[in-house]
Protein: Glutamine-dependent NAD(+) synthetase
Amino acid sequence: MNNLLNHGIVEVATLIPNEVKIANPKFNVDEMLRLLDNVIEENKLGKRQTRVVVYPELCVTGYTCHDLFNQHTLIKRAYDEMLRFAKLSNKEYSPLIFIGMPIRKDNQLFNCAVAIHKGEIIGVVPKTFIPNYSEFYEGRYFASSVNRVDDQIVIDGKTVPFTPNLLIEDTLTGAVVSAEVCEDVWVPIPPSKHHCLHGANIIVNLSASNETIGKSKYREDLVKMQSATSNCGYVYASASRGESTTDTVFSGHSLIADCGAIVGESKFLEDIEITYGEIDIENCENDRTKTTSFMTNVYKQKYERVCIETFAPVTDEFISNREISILPFVPHNIDERATEILKLQAAGLAGRLKKINCESVVIGISGGLDSTLALIVAVEAFNINGYDKKGIHAITMPCYGTTDRTLNNARRLMEILEVTSYEINIKDACEQHYKDIGYDKSKLDVTFENVQARERTQILMDVSNKIGSLVVGTGDLSELALGWCTYNGDQMSMYGVNASIPKTLVRGILESYAEHHEGLKDVLLDICDTPVSPELLPPNEDGTIKQKTEDKIGSYVVHDFILYYMLRHGFGPKKIFDLYVNAKTMHEKNIGVKEPVVDKQELLKNMDIFYNRFWTQQFKRSCMPDGVKVGSVSLSPRGDWRMASDACQGIWLDELKDLKEKYCK
Structure:
């Protein structure tokens, strides 16, 4: 898995001819070659790097030949056409190909997936599970792979593997491909489960699955789940409407899944002949090794491994046609997910309060994003427990940098939510402290800022002691990653409800909440529109915020993107850089920018900040308070992230250095 080509992203495709003539192999192979030539041309032009293509089950003859499969004339002609297809497929930039064929061997007929590369048949995978129920009568014609006599077959004078346990490894990309045929995936323990446990990271399925009401959704869920539980890419190609409609209708349903996510699909009546998708095999491998239970119970089997080299890329530049979100933490269905996230946050806090027999909390309110979300979570938690909201003691603590806008929003928020509110100006307390430690407050440096942060925390803790309550922390996941918090100041609380919510998602949750709570809408939207700031430095002369967090530490959009792909997927800086550029470019195109330009130097500046701060600020995360995990990423030292506070970030910075030398000349 070292030095993966194209960052381990492998493009695959399903090729499903719309026109099929039953028992006419020459016509069908001509149609198959037509589609293959389209793929090869795209590869040649450098528009794509499609390395694996999959046709439907029994595509050479047509699936619905029925008793014609017992005719020697058909089987012989199909064999000849298979050889013709293999020969004519031998072109530069041709991918690894899987076609569906009936093949006679050992006095039996097998329903097979035939693997072809560079004009040669390199392996044959016979179908294992033969359906013989309802509309399926395959047992009338075909034998199961378990009935084969041996694991080899001679085709055109060459001996090749004949086994369901076949691994084909592309040594250029690291892709390890195995095949199964249609029904094989519909059984309790599909062959592909064993294939993946023995090293396959891409599974292809040559299928002829007819359509009935609701079946397409079930099929999609089946493929997604198979891909998710096996941490693999799954490429499913089903027979088209060109099959016989004597008793059934086929749809040409194509599905390409990557670790549980559908990345390519063509549906009924769309008649799309070529469906592309991308499989991230580095992600597959990272997930498998991270999930230590993955290899716990392996039933060891004998496997044949064939090594090939597909083709060298036209360009060394990163190529990906897969659209990914520039905001990976923010789901597309934000309204539905925002409600779920709030419920999880509130349930965590409600459970903690009930267990410690506490019916009151203290929370600092700044009029910013994080404290607003934390206050809403507290209200929802009190609703769950049936507590009086007056037990929520919300304290706003203005000082040098507080603007009228944020102070007024804090006041309005506390009033609308009908919690117990306090306003404590901390300026005098800070002045006294500066005097006590002999500090010149005109310096406006980190001491000037942190005195305020710690004074606020002291007030929250002291009020908590006074009334016997719990201090709710407001800091979010992005701030924890960057260490953008004052040690033993806002870094500390008794329960952090936002600890696994990144900044970009905080905004999304509040915007969604605003749309469903009319009384809060205006104040929440204004809070979302306010620049992110700790407000520790004096404002501008016109009273607006001067100290803007992103001016100091960079874009939260970039930081959250890095955080997601580093922690969730284990990717390094070079891959994350290319993924972000790709995502940003596609995002700009989607919003109407004709020729998007990504400022790569600015991106690298942000990445440099992230990778330096993430390592140097681990000591703050090592003693972070309790807080419930609600998403796929957490930095809790008791949960997802355990790291030495003095770990070295050198090798990550080396990758950044290479990028800077390339783009910052």
About this structure: The two ends are 31 Å apart (CA to CA). The chain has two domains: 5-290+304-308, 334-663.
